[in-house]
């Protein structure tokens, strides 16, 4: 089945007319076009922080659930995901199945002893963290470190984290770090990690350095905001005060990050899957321009993963909307069509 897409393409809004020649866009007409889709075109959406295949912390990866979650992402127009931490070794079809998103993953989370969810991830001594991380990066290109945990978990020391970054970069990999404390965030930025995940309570003074050194921020803003009402109903505790303090200022941190030129990535980190539109709207509500909030979930996130946009030679992904989603982010709820690897996988005629 040959798919042709035409219309105004974001980010620049120019008119394009592209044919999918297998998994490559081309402007050269391809014979036997069976589907023509017209509208406002994005090069597919990206969820840069999602953990498909499991719904309860500590449980093992379930292949049927994994497939189901990934289908939900495709329904939402997501053609690529990054999983910073998986609950088990993914099956061979993960990231390769023609009907399911392209995928990048970091294998199991790497955490300090006594931190993170029981049953998930790998506990690693400080003196072996760099070696374990570089071995993981050789396998999958990414490593995920739990840099700190909840309100009281002592952060991974900056010298350990710096060793991880050096070892992983030496093998061509990248490091994503979970932080929800000021100290863990500061260590991650000082170590020069590739992406800060959540970044709750990060000191805003560090944003300029993040922008300069190319450290991305995946704020998972909607995910944190979603939890807040439930946390507010709990009895007072240090853990409650920590979370409420961080979640309440997180939107302004996101706005400041965008303002400082930090690359922001849209990630959901929550259930149900296939809700990247909620994060895009949360980023916009926080103060990012709709154009930039969409970039965080589409062309800029793709560029971060090494995927070019809607241009000849690029992998043939697209999500198509009736109207310009920048003027109406609710368009994200109603994609006309989703093209993945040159195939029409949702919608169209
Ligand atoms: Zn996560």
TrEMBL record:
Q: Which SUPFAM superfamilies match?
A: Metallo-dependent hydrolases (SSF51556)
Record keyword Hydrolase present: yes
For the Amidohydrolase-related domain, which residue ranges apply? 41-345
**What domain of life does the native source organism fall in?**
Bacteria
Q: Which InterPro entries match?
A: Amidohydro-rel, Metal-dep_hydrolase_composite, Metal_Hydrolase, Metallo-dep_Hydrolase
What's in the keyword line of the UniProt record?
Hydrolase
Q: Which Pfam families match?
A: Amidohydro_1 (PF01979)
An example molecular function term from Gene Ontology annotations: hydrolase activity, acting on carbon-nitrogen (but not peptide) bonds
- Name of this chain's protein: Imidazolonepropionase-like amidohydrolase
What organism is this sequence from? Saccharothrix ecbatanensis
């Amino acid at each position: 089945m040959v798919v042709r897409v035409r219309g105004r393409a974001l980010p620049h809004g120019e008119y394009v007319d592209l044919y999918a020649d297998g998994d490559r866009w081309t402007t050269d007409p391809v014979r036997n076009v069976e589907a023509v889709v017209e509208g406002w075109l994005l090069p597919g959406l990206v969820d840069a922080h999602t953990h498909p295949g499991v719904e309860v912390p500590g449980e093992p990866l379930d292949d049927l659930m994994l497939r189901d979650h990934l289908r939900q992402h495709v329904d939402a127009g997501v053609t690529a995901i990054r999983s910073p931490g998986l609950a088990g070794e993914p099956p061979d079809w993960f990231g390769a199945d023609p009907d399911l998103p392209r995928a990048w993953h970091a294998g199991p989370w790497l955490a300090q002893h006594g931190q993170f969810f029981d049953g998930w991830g790998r506990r690693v001594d400080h003196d072996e963290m760099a070696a374990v991380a570089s071995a993981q990066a050789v396998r999958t290109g990414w490593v995920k470190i739990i840099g700190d945990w909840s309100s009281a978990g002592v952060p991974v020391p900056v010298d350990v984290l710096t060793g991880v970054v050096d070892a992983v970069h030496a093998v061509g990999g990248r490091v994503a770090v979970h932080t929800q404390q000021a100290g863990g965030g500061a260590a991650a930025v000082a170590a020069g990690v590739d992406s800060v995940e959540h970044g709750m309570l990060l000191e805003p003074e560090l944003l300029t350095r993040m922008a300069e050194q190319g450290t991305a921020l995946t704020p998972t803003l909607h995910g944190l905001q979603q939890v807040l009402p439930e946390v507010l109903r709990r009895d007072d505790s240090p853990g409650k005060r920590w979370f409420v303090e961080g979640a309440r200022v997180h939107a302004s941190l996101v706005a400041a990050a965008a303002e400082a030129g930090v690359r922001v990535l849209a990630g959901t980190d929550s259930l149900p899957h296939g809700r990247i539109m909620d994060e895009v709207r949360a980023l916009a509500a926080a103060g990012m321009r709709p154009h930039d909030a969409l970039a965080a979930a589409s062309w800029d996130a793709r560029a971060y993963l090494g995927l070019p946009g809607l241009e000849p030679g690029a992998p043939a992904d697209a999500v198509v909307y009736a109207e310009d989603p920048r003027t109406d982010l609710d368009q994200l709820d109603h994609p006309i069509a989703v093209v993945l690897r040159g195939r029409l996988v949702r919608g169209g005629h």
